[in-house]
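Work Package 4 report. The design task specified in the project plan requires that, given a folded chain encoded as structure tokens, an amino acid be chosen for each position. We show below one input record used in the internal validation round.
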């Protein structure tokens, strides 16, 4: 009986690892195909199977995307600027709102929090037309600030996560800091934020990925200019007769910063999951 259980243990583990490996391969296959196509020249892609390895490896498509022929560099600069403004604006405002909801007593605090959280239930597509009309009347369509303004302030998701993290900090520590003469801003800056680095890193990554990959709103409010990476990549499909080596080169350029960011923040993300109990 025990020997049978012992034999089933390694077999079960092997089955789990094989299943996970197969799932990882399925998930990675599109990325590998994108990378392979990006390093092919248009001639090589047209004359060989799409699944064949580049022969030889070519940077022609990257040169065309980043060079003067397509001028993809402007879209990269615009996207970086959008992401930086969004990250700073959302994190700063979300931290202040979350700390107020978690640690500052004021009339109607819980009611305001749950009403604010309830806005997560409103589909984003419902707000597109009103937002566009408001910003167009302000003359902000086809401008950088038209892309940024509607989403630069605290998001309900970020406020909820930060509030839960701040509530887990022992009240005794905050009371001790108060007795030492620390005010609200000093406690937030010197005590609460250093203890919340994992969740802040996770929210930074989520915010970067969300706005780096944003397509619908930039496409609507800035149809002509300035273009972000997602809109510029989509435009390549029609602008160059679906030249897939250019499209995949642009996609690879857009993916590499996100992969590097995830690898850099991997430890903090795991730490935030362990801290907050998120699944």
């Amino acid at each position: 009986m025990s020997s049978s259980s012992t034999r089933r243990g390694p077999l079960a583990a092997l089955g789990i690892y094989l299943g996970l490996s197969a799932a990882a391969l399925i998930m990675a296959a599109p990325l590998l195909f994108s990378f392979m196509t990006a390093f092919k020249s248009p001639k090589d892609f047209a004359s060989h199977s799409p699944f064949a390895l580049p022969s030889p490896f070519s940077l022609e498509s990257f040169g065309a995307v980043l060079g003067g022929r397509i001028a993809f560099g402007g879209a990269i600069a615009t996207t970086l600027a959008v992401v930086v403004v969004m990250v700073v604006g959302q994190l700063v405002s979300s931290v202040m709102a979350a700390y107020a909801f978690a640690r500052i007593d004021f009339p109607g605090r819980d009611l305001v929090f749950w009403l604010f959280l309830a806005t997560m239930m409103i589909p984003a597509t419902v707000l597109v037309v009103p937002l566009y009309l408001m910003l167009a009347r302000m003359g902000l369509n086809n401008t950088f600030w038209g892309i940024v303004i509607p989403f630069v302030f605290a998001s309900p998701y970020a406020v909820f996560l930060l509030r839960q993290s701040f509530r887990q900090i022992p009240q005794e520590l905050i009371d001790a800091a108060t007795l030492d003469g620390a005010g609200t801003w000093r406690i937030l800056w010197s005590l609460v934020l250093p203890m919340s680095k994992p969740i802040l890193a996770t929210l930074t990554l989520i915010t970067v990925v969300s706005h780096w990959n944003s397509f619908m709103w930039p496409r609507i409010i800035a149809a002509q200019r300035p273009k972000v990476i997602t809109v510029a990549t989509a435009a390549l499909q029609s602008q160059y007769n679906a030249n897939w080596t250019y499209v995949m080169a642009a996609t690879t350029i857009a993916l590499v910063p996100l992969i590097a960011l995830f690898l850099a923040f991997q430890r903090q993300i795991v730490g935030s999951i362990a801290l907050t109990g998120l699944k």
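The chain is about 75% helix and 0% strand. Validation will be extended to a larger panel in the next phase.
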